Amino acid sequence: MSATTYANKNATCVSMTSTSGDYKTGNGPTGTYLNRTDTTFTPNDWHNSNSIMSTTAVRQQGGSLEIRQSARKLRNDTHSLTNWGQHDNTTRLSDRMRDLIAWKDKLEQTIADTDVEIALLTNHKERCETALTKHDHSI
């Protein structure tokens, strides 16, 4: 007994040849009986089936390549946008830090100048008060 499996578009057919009549396979309690089939395929059927499978495979391969290319482009674009966005944010933050440091230095200098001026005014006030008290006592 010999069994041959053929693919024909959407169906799989089994063609068996033997001298006995019925065939058993190991599917079930006592096996499944396969009826003898007289289905045979011509070379033209084989070529048509192979052509359809080849065309389908090429079409799917083209679609797959297109999806891979668009995914690669999307990944590269996203990576580029992310890097430039990070660069821009880092630049803006460093500029802001430089501005804040300059303002802090300016404010510290202003506070120091104000403290010096307050000390001078306090000293001048004390001298004026001393001179006023001397002037009042002399009259």
Q: Globular, elongated, flat, extended or rod-shaped: what is the shape?
A: rod-shaped
Uncertain spans: 1-26
| Structural class by SSE content | alpha+beta
Kindly provide the radius of gyration, computed on alpha-carbon positions and rounded to a whole number of angstroms.
Answer: 49 Å
Following the backbone from N to C, one meets helices and strands in this order, namely EEEEH
- What's the tally of helices? 1
Major sheet = 2 strands, antiparallel
Q: Helical proportion?
A: 55-70%
Number of strands: 4
**Major sheet: order of its strands?**
1-2
Mean pLDDT: 81
Q: How far from one another are the termini?
A: 148 Å
Q: Per DSSP, what share of the residues sits in E-state strands of 2 or more residues?
A: 5-15%
Give structural notes.
The chain is α+β, with helices and mostly antiparallel strands. 69% of the residues lie in helices and 14% in strands. It has one helix at residues 43-138, and strands at residues 2-8, 11-17, 23-25, 32-34. The strands form two sheets. The protein has a two-stranded antiparallel sheet. The radius of gyration is 49 Å and the shape is rod-shaped. It starts with a strand and ends with a helix.
Briefly say what this structure is.
The protein is of the alpha+beta class and 139 residues long. The protein has one helix spanning 43-138, and strands spanning 2-8, 11-17, 23-25, 32-34. Strand 3 (23-25) and strand 4 (32-34) form a beta hairpin.
